[in-house]
Structure formats: C-alpha cells, structure tokens
TrEMBL record:
NCBIfam families: ATPase_P-type. Keywords: ATP-binding, Cell membrane, Membrane, Nucleotide-binding, Translocase, Transmembrane, Transmembrane helix. It comes from Pseudogulbenkiania ferrooxidans 2002. This is ATPase, P-type (Transporting), HAD superfamily, subfamily IC. It comes from the Bacteria. One of its GO terms (cellular component) is plasma membrane. Residues 19-92 form the Cation-transporting P-type ATPase N-terminal domain.
Length: 901
C-alpha cells in the first residue's frame, strides 16, 4: 500500500523490512550486531530491557464501567426496576413510607446483584487468562551457540530462531537459510495461498512480496528456516494491524442462547402474572396500596435474581477443574458444548499412542532385522540420520518424535558432517521428504516417506551383492513386507537414495534402501477411555495419515475396532460421494487411514450433516480447518502447532485422548449442575408466591413481606445455589447417551418438580408456620392485625424461617434427580460452606436488631423453629419415594437424561 496511507509507526516498520530485505544474510546479521551463534545471554537480557517484551498490546474491549452498567439492563434487572418504580410511584402518590422503603430496597438488590455478577464475570476472565499462561508460545532459539526452547515473549532483535511447518512466526524476521519454506501471509495480504520464502537479497519495493522476510502473526505452512529477528512487539507489522486479529465477535454458545431465552421467559411470565393479579385485586376491591404491594410481590417472587451469577461461577469453576485434569479451555462456551458431543474424530500418534517412538525392526538387503543388528548398510543409517528437520540441543534432538527415532537409530554419523544443498519438505499430499546433502564424494539425495509414495520412484533395490533392478513383482513383495510390519502395529517408513545426485533436486530413479518399522505403543489409559466413550454413547472415529494396517492394529489393541471393523483409506474416501460417505459413517466400527487434512475436514462436515455434535483433535497447521469446522476443536498442547492451538477451543496439555473423556465428563457435569440449581432456585418461587395469593384470595394478613422474599433470593439462597453449581461430576454421568442439541434447560419435568411438587411442600410448610404462630397468639380468621404487632412480626418470621429450612432440605434433594440424598457423598466443600452461610444469615436476620429492623422480623422461640418440621419431613419422604419410583420404572434412564426427573 502507498506510504502516504500508513501511520508514521507503520511506515517505519515498512522501511525496516525494506532495508533488511535488501541485505545478504551475512549483512543482515551484521546490521543487527549478532552472528551465526546468536546473541550472548547477557546481551539478550540487555536488549529485552531496552526493547521490552515481544508481545502485542491487545485491543481494549468494553471498558469496565460499561460492562458493569450492562449488569443492570438484562431482563431480570428490568423487571426489578419496574417493581421499584411502582413502589416509589405509590410513595409519591400516597405518601406511604413503607412503599419508599420497599422501592429503595429493590434498587439495593439490583445494585448488589449487578455488582456481584460483574465481579463473577471478572473473576472468570481472570481465571481463563491465568490458565492460558500455562501454554506460552515457545520458539527454538540459538543463543551462545546453543539451541533451546524459549518463550516467544522473550525474543529480542538479533535472536536466531528456527521455524518449521505449523509454527506461528513470533516476530518480524529476516530469512538466513530456508528449505522448501512456504508461509501464509493472509493476515497481511488477505491472500491465503502459501508463498515461498528464500534467503537471497531482494530489491522488491514491498518486503511482504520480496521473499526473504517473515512477519509476526503469519504462519509457516511447510518447510523449515533459520531466521534472525529484527523487530519485536509493537514494532512489528502485526503490532500495527493487531485489530485485524482481535475483532472477532464472541461466540454465542447454545447455553448462552438458552439462558437468554430462559431470562425472557421468566421475566415476561413474572410481569404477566403480576398484571393478572393486579387486575384480580382491583376486581375484588382490594385497596390501591394493598393491590400494588400484591403485584410487586408477585413480580419479585418470580424473578430468580441469583440465576445469572450462579451460571457464570459454574462455568468458571468448570474451566479450573478441567485445567487440573490437563484440559485448557480457550473459549468458555466449549465447556457446555462438550456435554452434547456425540462423536470424537481422533488422530492416532501422540493422542492414542505415547508418541515415544523407536525403530524396532528394519527390512533391508532382502530380509527383516532387529534395529540393533550390527552391520546394517551405512546408507540406510545415513538416510535416517540426515533426512530430517531436527535441531541438535544439549539434551538431544528437538523436533518430530518420528524423526528423533530415526536419528537415534542412525547414531553418530561420520565426520565431517554433510551440508544440505536442497530440500523438498514433507507434506500431506507428497507424504515424503527429500534432501540433497553435500558429502565428501559429491551430492547425495536421501528420501524417506510412505512406502506407497516412495516405491514408485525406485528403479533399483539394495541387496547384499549390490544394487539390483526393482520390478513390479519386487515392489509387491516389498509392500507385503510393509503389511507385515503394520500388522504388528508398527509405523512403516520407506528409505531410498540416489548417488551421485545433482541440482535441481529430482526424486526419480531412486535406489530402495529399506523399511524402518517404528514402534509407538498405545497409551495404557486409552483403552479404558474408549470403553467409557462406548458406555456414554459417544462414538470414536480414528482418522490418521498412517498405514491402514498399522492403524487397524493399534485400533484393535485399544478396543476401538471390534469384530468386522471397516478401514477406509484416503483413496477410497476420494471416490465416495457425500451421500455414500454418510451411509458409510453409519457403520459402528470404522476408521480412516492414509487421509489428508482436507479429507479429515470433509469427514467432520459430513458427520455434522448427519446431526452429530463433533469434537475433533488435531496438531498440524493443516488441521486448523477441521478444528474450526468442528463443534469442539481440540489441539495438542505438547506437539501441536501454534496455528492448530489458535484454531482450537480446547488444548490438551498432555496430548492424551483420555483427557478428552475427562473434559466431556466435566462438560456434562456443568449442564447437570445448571439444572440442579435451576430446580433449587425455582422451587422457592412457590412459597414466596403462595403467601400473596392467600393475602388476596383469602383476605388474611400478608404472611411474607417483599423484603423477606429478597432475603431468600439474594441472601440465604445464593451461596447454596452456587454450591450446587460446583458439584463434581456424578459417578453415573458417563453412563447415559449425550443430550440432544434441541434439549431445553427448562423442561416440563423440571418445572413440574420445582413448581408442582417441591414448591408446594415448601409453601405448605411456610403457611402452616405462619398460621400456627398467629392462632397461638389469639388471632382469628377475618381479624386485622397492624404490621407492627409483635406476634404478626413473629408469624412472618416463622414463615420466612420455614422457607429457609425448606430450602436446606431442598438443597440435598436437588443434588441428584434420581439418587437418594442419603447415598450421595459430601465431596463438595462449597455445599457445607453454603449451608453454614445460610444458617448464619437467617440467625442474624431473626436475632439481631439490625436484621429485625431491615427485614421486619422478630425473635422466635426454639419451638417455633420446629413448627414446619413435619411438613418438611413429608417433603423429604415424598421426594425419596419419587426418586425410588424414578429409578425403577421403565425408561427411567432416558427420562432422567432429558431432565424429566
């Protein structure tokens, strides 16, 4: 773009790139006062102090004050604002100080609830930010002649960095040497096609197109390179276009949409109910003040003020539990989406296996040999030891575990070391790698890769008496050897060479040197995780680039493939239409082998077309499309590329398939917990509502005041509800199929249990306590009582206490909809803390002068606390009987999963 359109800082970054791109690699190093061995540690530390951390300042989101104000504008808050406005209006019109007190009390509740919700969201954001620090972007850097991993934030100008396919470029860099290097500059150019990069000086007016500079925020698609950093942090080009990568809108999860729907439904229901009963009160001649009080009470009683902060905390706690189980949640909505996962499309290496590879056997000179057999052909070890992109470090090798296994098999190579003159990097289409090495006797070409891709290039075969022609029959025999290795679960690589060789690099007319059988044993815990998935109704589809026989052998070892399981290769997949693939995916035991990342994405898309909720694992840069297409993208934290991690919703810190199952278990627990505290919160609406119906329809003194309703909703109920949100996964949570995507949080069964069952018992207990105290004090039906009468205050207090005691019983009942409350272990420390808080708060409301003044209570005798006990014991017994019936009736498991319990 023209310089006149750039800011001064952006123009400076452009000139920096332009100037260094015109230099040779040696001149570029000199201009940055560094050398081939990199910076000394002391100099690097000095430059870090001078230039600052290699980080880009994030775009400012919504300011805190704006997010705080939003807490006062959601549906629940709006309904409470209306109730407060009505109370204050009544005070203005009638001068009743009780209405003014009520109005200001409701406003106080709105403020307290809003601040609490804001604080919970803030703490959740802080927790996620802290968890993300578990995965700092690391780069391979050379300092003082030693290569080692370093957090990218500590890079400084002059650092020597090594990059390869799948890496994100950590800073603006000048290429010093490159082999098959291709980068994706879409973030700068909008063009997603990979672009080649080289080390030669360039005189192009645009360094992005010039060919020897890499820019922060872009990604390496293929190849490898040694580069020198020339700009970091806000001095990079990415520092001036950061808004392009930070303007993505927040994901709206199914849970978010469902909560918004629930909020609207409850708010509109409360308002409609208030207006209906306002009309009823007017029709029966209720005085204006009593009628308005009645309507406000109906509205306040039906608004679950604590719901939204409880959901926020439940999700935040789930992310922390997942992190402890080695699953890092990058996007909070993924916590809930996991609970609906029906299919996991998993790769094999490092996820199902240990990614701890070693060459076990080789086939060369016409027969198989153990890898440690003396006297194996030197050229076989030269190919294994030099056809790779590993970096030597003080502790061994840094790079791909399979290449490390080959390098360890090769052992120490003869000195002097060879020099690389050319490279064709491995990619998912070629399935092989070729390097041109300068040896003392000339150029040698070394090739390694999948046997079916290397053998067609071979015209000769290495045998004990020298090189012999390789015909079609010979290739078939070699492919049979490949199958024999693969049947043992070994990964198989073909090794070939040509010498002498020449530039340009040409892979034809190769000599087949041998096969390397590489062992990568399954993780011991994976078989159990696969069995858990079967039990939970979650299908696991193996999708690997490995040989079909190898993949099948590993799948059978871990129990993924049973009976007449079907293996579909990439070539077969290419010939299937989407309709045929959908039908093929109906087969229960199925795995895909020798597939490309593009085919993997297609499998994910077709599964979604079948109505599946798909979780997919990936580690390479080419896996990013599949990770983004999936409902839940899961990247590998240890071996995953930076691009894959950025595209994923969840990152596995241990690259272990069993961790995915743990994460799904936590996701299911989150959804179940939201249902638990939703039942708990909605139950108290009925004992808060029924006193107002009795007040109007039976023409009795008001058994419960509005301020006492608020004491329950935002006082005694709050911490116990939060405790239900922190319940650990139930032992049986993985024993049922995944919930349907169309399933609602608020089901008829949940409403029936909360409103038509538990709530009625609590309402009966509350009214029984109120009328018992009233009649004991000499009141008779039809009599009027001033609001300040001591026995009336004691009666409303008894009503309030009965509701709180009912909610204590309800807390244990809501821990599970079918399992007896007496059989559930108390592993939740939040639960005991919530109960202690609830008890302390109700005691302070009843027995302190401040609590009596604010909430209109009076001290109770010890016997008054026991008045509601028979009704509450009946409630406990009735729900235990309901649970027993629910457990033993036909179809109980399915209905429980749908929330009918």
């Amino acid at each position: 773009m023209p310089g006149s359109h750039r800011s001064p800082a952006a123009h400076r970054a452009h000139l920096d790139a332009l100037n260094i791109s015109r230099l040779t690699p040696e001149q570029a190093l000199g201009s940055l006062h560094t050398g081939p061995g990199g910076l000394a540690e002391a100099e690097a530390a000095r430059r870090l102090t001078e230039y600052g951390s290699n980080t880009v300042e994030e775009m400012a989101g919504k300011p805190g004050w704006q997010r705080l104000l939003e807490q006062f504008g959601h549906f629940f808050a709006i309904i409470l604002w209306i109730a407060a406005g009505l109370a204050l209006l009544a005070y203005v019109l009638q001068g009743d100080p009780a209405m003014a007190t009520l109005g200001w009390a409701i406003i106080g509740v709105i403020v307290i609830n809003g601040v609490f919700s804001f604080w919970q969201e803030y703490k959740a954001e802080q927790a996620l930010a802290a968890l993300r620090q578990l995965l700092p972007l690391e780069v391979k850097v050379r300092r003082g002649g030693v290569v080692y991993p370093l957090p990218a934030s500590q890079l400084v100008p002059g650092d020597i960095v090594y990059l390869e396919g799948g890496d994100a470029v950590p800073a603006d860099c000048r290429v010093l040497s490159a082999f098959g290097l291709r980068v994706n500059n879409a973030i700068l150019t909008g063009e997603s096609a990979p672009q080649s990069r080289h080390a030669e000086a360039s005189h192009n007016a645009d360094p992005v197109l010039g060919g020897n500079c890499l820019f922060a925020g872009t990604s390496v698609v293929a190849g490898s390179a040694e580069v020198v950093v020339y700009a970091t942090g806000m001095r990079t080009r990415f520092g001036h276009v950061a808004h392009l990568t930070q303007s993505t809108a927040d994901t709206v999860s199914p849970l978010t949409r469902e909560l918004a729907r629930l909020s609207r439904w409850v708010a509109l229901f409360a308002t409609a109910l208030g207006l209906v009963f306002l009309s009823i009160g007017h029709a029966i001649g209720l005085p204006w003040s009593d009628n308005l009080l009645f309507a406000i009470g109906i509205i306040v009683a039906n608004v679950p003020e604590g719901l939204l902060p409880t959901v926020t905390l439940s999700l935040a706690l789930a992310t922390q539990r997942m992190a402890k189980r080695r699953a890092l949640v990058r996007h909070l909505p993924a916590v809930e989406t996991l609970s609906a996962a029906t299919v996991i499309v998993s790769d094999k290496t490092g996820t199902l296996t240990e990614n701890r590879m070693r060459v076990l056997d080789v086939y060369t000179l016409g027969r198989a040999h153990p890898a440690d057999t003396p006297g194996l052909p030197a050229v076989l070890k030269q190919i294994a030891g030099q056809c790779h992109n590993l970096l030597a470090s003080g502790n061994g090798w840094i790079g791909d575990p399979m290449e490390q296994a080959l390098a360890e098999f090769a052992g120490a190579l003869p000195q002097p070391p060879s020099l690389r003159r050319g490279e064709l990097p491995f990619d998912s289409e070629r399935k092989r790698m070729a390097v041109l090495q300068q040896q003392p006797d000339g150029l040698h070409l070394y090739v390694k890769g999948a046997a079916e891709c290397v053998l067609p290039l071979c015209g000769m075969l290495l045998m004990p008496d020298g090189e012999q022609p390789l015909d079609a029959a010979g290739r078939d025999r070699l492919l049979a050897e490949v199958d024999r290795f693969a049947e043992r679960g070994l990964r198989v690589l073909a090794l070939a060479y040509r010498q002498p060789a020449a530039l340009p690099l040409d892979e034809s007319n190769l000599v087949f040197a041998g096969l390397a059988g590489i062992e990568d044993p399954p993780r011991p815990e994976v078989a159990g995780a696969i069995a858990t998935c079967r039990q939970a109704g979650i299908r696991v589809v193996l999708c690997t680039g490995d040989h079909a026989v190898t993949a099948s052998a590993i799948a059978r070892q871990i129990g993924l493939l049973q009976g007449d399981g079907k293996v579909v290769t990439g070539d077969e997949l290419e010939r299937l239409s989407d309709t045929q693939l959908q039908l093929r995916l109906d087969q229960p035991d199925l795995l895909f082998a020798r597939v490309t990342p593009e085919q993997k994405q297609r499998i994910v898309t077709v599964l979604q077309q079948k109505g599946e909720v798909v979780a997919v694992t990936g580690d390479g840069v080419n896996d990013a499309p599949a990770l983004k297409s999936a409902d839940i993208g899961i990247a590998m934290g240890q071996r995953g590329s930076d691009v894959a991690k950025a595209a994923a919703d969840i990152v596995l810190l241990d690259d272990n398939f069993a961790t995915i199952v743990d994460a799904i278990e936590e996701g299911r627990a989150v959804y179940a917990n939201i249902r638990k505290f939703l039942t708990y919160i909605l139950t108290s609406n009925i004992p808060e509502l029924v006193p107002y119906l009795a007040f109007v329809l039976l023409r009795v003194p008001l058994p419960l005041t509005i301020i006492q309703i608020l004491a329950v909703d935002l006082g005694t109920d709050m911490l116990p509800a939060l405790a239900l949100g922190a319940e650990p996964p139930a032992p049986a949570v993985m024993n049922t199929p995944p919930r349907s995507r169309q399933e609602r949080l608020l089901t008829p069964g949940l409403l029936l249990r909360a409103y038509g069952f538990l709530g009625l018992f609590e309402a009966a207990a509350a009214l029984f306590a109120f009328f018992t105290v009233m009649y004991a004090a000499g009141w008779h039906y039809g009599g009027t009582v001033p609001a300040s009468t001591p026995f009336y205050l004691a009666a409303t207090t008894a009503c309030l206490v009965a509701i709180v005691l009912g909610q204590i019983v309800n807390l244990f009942l809501c821990r599970d909809s079918t399992v007896s409350a007496f059989r559930l272990p108390l592993r939740n420390r939040w639960l005991l803390g919530g109960l202690a808080f609830e008890a302390a708060l109700i005691l302070s409301i009843v027995y302190t002068s401040f609590g009596q003044r604010v909430f209109g209570t009076a001290p109770l005798a010890a016997a008054d606390w026991l008045i509601a006990l028979p009704v509450l014991l009946a409630m406990l017994l009735a729900d235990e009987l309901r649970k027993a019936w629910q457990r033993h009736r036909p179809g109980a498991a399915a209905d429980t999963r749908r929330g009918m319990g």
